Amino acid sequence: MTTSSGSGSVSIALCGSGGAGVMTAANMFVDAAAEAGFYALFGRSSGPQIRGGEAAALLRLAAKPITSVDDTFDIMLAVDWLGVQRFAAELPLSKSTLIICDPAAGEVPEVYVKTGARIVHLPMKDLAKAIPGGRPNMIALGAVAALVGFPVQPLTEVLGKSLKKKRADAYEASVAAVKKGAEFAASLGDTKKLPAPSPNPGKRLAIAGNAATGLGAIRGGVKFCAAYPITPATEVLEYLSSALPKVGGVFVQAEDELASVNMCIGGSYGGAPSITATAGPGLALMIEGLGLSVASETPVVVVDVQRVGPSTGIATKCEQSDLNIAVYGLHGDAPHLVVAPNSIGDCLFTTQWGVHLAEVLQSPCIVLSDQALGQSRAIIDAPPELNLPGGRLTATTPAEGETFKRYANTESGVSPMPIPGVEGCQYTADGLEHTETGTPSSQSSDHNMQLDKRQRKLTNYDYADHWATIEGEGDIAVITWGSCTGAAREAIDRARADGVKARLISLRLVYPTRPQHMGDALKGVKKILVVEQSHLGQFTRYLRGEYDLPVKPEQLSRPGPLPMRPGEIHARLLSMGK
Fold first, then answer.
1. Using an 8 Å Cβ cutoff, are 362 and 322 in contact?
2. 151 lies in which domain range?
């Protein structure tokens, strides 16, 4: 049987209270790993106060692409112990784990002692004091790098890029601290080492999911964003606030989520592809506006970076529990688009595709990202620039004697949409049901016609192979979505090494459904495992309600904030393969 953790990677947890600098150290490690030819995944965990308090930087490094956390951590380094025990459930340790701590920080909490991990001491504060301007987090960075066999030079190069031009003294102190930590690491014993990186790594990109989402919006042609900050989506807005002016666009910080979505609908009505970003509480406030987008057939994109709910929930943790509101939350029969990225890199493509679909189909599109994707940072192969064909179908002045029909009952369901001011193309754009010309109507014939039209344009559109990521073969199918995809992919690889073959189906197009495509993807399948991060099994219920599955699926689900890990999916697959 294969090992229970990724043998070709090293997982590290850097922990400390707010201000200890663990996030800074982890970000530098990721930048250096990119320079050295490695891949990396950097997630973070913090308390409900968002800023300040306890913090944990969760790193995984490897010589090949990685899209999931591992089952356990190989190294846990605690700069101090203030509040770190609150992360115990999120930091699975084992007897092979090395815990590194400062003896000046006090006793190791019992919850970590009970894991049986080996505990060693690194006097970070004392070593830092011996260096003018030295900081404990840089001592920690050098020690951890040396323990896993990571070269010091890329770290010092990253320090130079970030500090040398600003403060030469801070740069020199940080380099000295990194080297001192690396020297001291020799006394801490041996631990798991990184494999050699690829000699020809090619172009890499170190990017967070929320930044990738913003880049995808820009590549999709977005020119307007109105939004209200909310964790964990704020970084999307930060990216767009600086990127949009560079492409001739406009960013507006609105007073709330209701204003945000309606400003975006207005911007889109005026001809500018528009987007906003929010989390679950904000999406709930935007639902009425999305209904207006459906009825008026005005494209708009809403990115929902899901967090733990309901209500305010846990703003800094991940969960996939906004599925129901995204798919079924609009009042009335209101068909719309729902898409979901399945990796940090895929945040770029899926958002670009979502903008494209919204424009082509004149529909609202909800992009269901989540905190684990949005606020994690990864080193990935640089994605290619894609040119998705087509765009918004615009109207021109009708011929003399013809009446412009904004909502013409076309075969495709898509009708030409004018930019305001085009002669002869005036129409009423509101939330009332209407005739083909846009005149408000309460007639059943008009209502049925427009209902059919709005549904037809979504169900008949050719989404090509983008509707899902499908990999592997076997008579077991693992169906999943979002950030659970990486763990499922790794689990399938492990199971294959154990002689159990399974295929992966990760939905990117959540709505509208693709019954024929799903049927083809499930041909020959005898068992199905649905993997999701939801307490009520929302995704399983969605699949059983919307698709004619060949067998009743087994379910592997739980709520946030704990991520789904490859080992538990692997174990279930082995059980199913007996």
1. no
2. 9-188
Contact predicate 75/98, CB 8 Å? yes
Do residue 453 and residue 431 come from a single domain?
yes
Q: What is the mean pLDDT of each run of 10 residues along the chain (578 residues)?
A: 64 91 94 94 80 83 95 96 88 96 94 96 96 95 97 92 78 95 93 88 89 98 98 98 98 98 98 98 98 98 97 95 98 98 98 98 98 97 89 96 97 97 94 97 98 98 97 97 98 97 98 98 98 98 97 97 96 95
**Contact yes or no for 174/138 (Cβ under 8 A):** yes
- Closest among 314, 352, 355 to 337, alpha carbons compared: 355
Element (DSSP H or E) covering residue 514: none
Whether residues 311 and 184 share a domain: the answer is no
Conformation bin of residue 528: beta by default, left when phi > 0, alpha when psi is -120 to 50:
beta
Cα 227 to Cα 244: distance, rounded to the nearest angstrom: 13
| DSSP β-ladder status, 98-101 and 118-121 | parallel
Distance separating alpha carbons of residues 300 and 354, to the nearest angstrom = 9
What CATH code is carried by the domain that includes residue 500? 3.40.50.920
Would you state the pLDDT for residue 121?
97
pLDDT at 229: 97
Distance from C-alpha of 406 to C-alpha of 279, rounded to nearest angstrom: 33
Q: Are residues 361 and 237 in the same domain?
A: yes
* Cα–Cα distance for residue pair 499/493, rounded to 1 Å: 10
Quote the Cα angle for 94-87-51, to 5°: 145
Beta strands in 283-334 (DSSP E): 300-306
- Number of structural domains (the chain) is 4
Task: Determine what percent of the chain falls in helix, strand and coil, rounding each to the nearest 5.
Answer: 40, 20, 40
Domain boundary among 135, 155, 188: 188
Question: Does any domain span residue 196?
Answer: no
